[in-house]
Amino acid sequence: DEGPELSKAPSGAPVDLPELPEPDELWHPIARDWYLSLRESGPAVFYQPSDWAMARYAAELMSRGLNSDRPPNGQYVSALDS
Q1: Cα–Cα distances in Å, from 33 out to 27, 29, 39, 55?
Q2: In a domain, 35, yes or no
Q3: Which residues have C-beta within 8 Å of that of residue 46, sequence separation ≥ 6?
Q4: Quick one: which of 32, 20, 39, 37 has its CA closest to 60?
Q5: Largest CB tally within 10 Å, which of 6, 27, 53, 59?
């Protein structure tokens, strides 16, 4: 047995994405760009509704951090990166 079959993500934007919410107008431009870039990412073909919900949550946290006057917190950045 050679193990499970591997699926490769296509390059470029997927053609069959679900209807996704637009980024919040109040998000920081970097958070907005990151969220929109996910739609153009090949791995997006594998995203489930919970992945898109997590992306919105991450973009909200990212935006709040970027709009803050305080320096980034290491735990906060680590959580966004996981």
Answers
A1: 10, 6, 10, 12
A2: no
A3: 7, 9
A4: 32
A5: 59
- What's this model's pTM, rounded to 2 decimal places? 0.76
**Grouped pLDDT means (10 residues each) for the chain, 82 residues:** 75 79 95 94 88 93 90 75 67
CA distance linking residue 40 with residue 33, whole number of Å: 11
Give the chain's domain count. 1
- Count of H-run helices and E-run strands, the chain: 3, 0
38 touches 55 (CB < 8 A): yes
Rounded-to-integer distance, Cα 29 and Cα 75, Å: 22
